Design the sequence.
């Protein structure tokens, strides 16, 4: 998957977790929590969906990498590059 | 002279209902209570609910602290630990009262309600969730809770699982917030046992510097549909008295 594919995958997950949120104006490097009404439970839902859909395991001490769309894509890119879209 | 006294055995739980708080006039009333950095952060929020919760949380925190410190809410200085947990900046000359104040506090908010727990000096964590919140509770528990907690949840009738999940979740959140670890602390590393008489005990599934008997936990409802959990590092020999205080819009 490319960075663009990963971005779409994250948007899909966010849409499923927070269906009422307008994701169209999501800014790359502003924390999700400042743009969306997401809390810790939603965050763990995202981690769980990444594992379920793409078999990506994220250790707890690296959760901070998932703060914004930009940092999430940068973190996941090397880990998902061999995954077919 | 402080306006409100707090004893070493007290946990003061402040609450602020967000009913009607999206009113712009209320926004304008609360914003002057915040520091310039907080106002800047508040204005970066693009989600109205998240922005409201942030603004109300900081207004509640500053108003509550000002009652003990006898200080102007705007003059209270906060600093942030590595995990993002705010603490009082008690550097000499910062607080307008004696600089030995060690007030501890923690904030939590959810849709419709903000709470802030305060102690005189004991580390404190608080979490609030709406009991009507629907979540993928069994999957979350299987993946992130300690096995004993997940197994207990799975053994319950389906109509009791969500409430038990919220109870356990808020306890776990209150603990990781009290120690300032956030989600970097795996939730499976510690396990709660909830007795029918209301007693809550913690045990650890991984080595840790924390002692189970050094902690007290409380579960309570601050309104009919909000579950709150409090974690305070205070030995059982010093039972806590929880005082509910309300800030009104």
Sequence:
């Amino acid at each position: 998957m490319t960075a663009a594919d990963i971005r779409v995958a994250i948007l899909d997950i966010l849409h499923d977790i927070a269906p009422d949120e307008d994701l169209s104006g999501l800014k790359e490097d502003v924390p999700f929590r400042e743009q969306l009404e997401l809390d810790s439970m939603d965050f763990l839902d995202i981690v769980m969906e990444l594992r379920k859909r793409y078999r990506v395991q994220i250790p707890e001490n690296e959760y901070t990498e998932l703060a914004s769309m930009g940092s999430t894509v940068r973190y996941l890119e090397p880990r998902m590059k061999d995954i077919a879209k | 002279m402080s306006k409100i006294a707090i004893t070493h055995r007290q946990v003061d739980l402040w609450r602020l209902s967000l009913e009607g708080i999206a009113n712009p006039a209320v926004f304008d009333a609360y914003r002057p209570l915040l520091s310039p950095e907080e106002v800047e952060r508040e204005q970066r929020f693009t989600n109205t609910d998240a922005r409201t919760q942030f603004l109300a949380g900081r207004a509640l925190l500053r108003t509550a602290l000002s009652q003990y410190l006898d200080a102007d809410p705007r003059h209270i200085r906060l600093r942030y630990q590595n995990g993002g947990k705010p603490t009082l900046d008690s550097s000499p000359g910062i607080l307008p009262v004696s600089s030995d104040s060690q007030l501890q506090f923690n904030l939590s908010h959810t849709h419709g309600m903000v709470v802030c727990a305060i102690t005189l000096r004991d580390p404190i964590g608080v979490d609030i969730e709406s009991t009507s919140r629907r979540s993928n509770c069994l999957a979350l528990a299987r993946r992130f809770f300690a096995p004993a907690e997940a197994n207990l949840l799975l053994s319950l009738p389906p109509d009791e699982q969500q409430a038990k999940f919220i109870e356990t979740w808020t306890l776990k959140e209150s603990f990781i917030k009290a120690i300032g670890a956030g989600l970097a602390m795996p939730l499976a590393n510690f396990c709660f046992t909830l007795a029918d008489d209301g007693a809550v005990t913690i045990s650890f599934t991984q080595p840790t510097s924390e002692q189970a008997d050094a902690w007290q936990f409380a579960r309570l409802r601050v309104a009919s549909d909000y579950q709150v959990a409090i974690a305070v590092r205070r030995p059982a020999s010093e039972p806590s008295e929880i005082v509910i205080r309300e800030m009104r819009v």
Summary: Confidence is low (pLDDT under 50) at residues 96-100 of chain B. The first helix of chain B runs from residue 24 to 30.
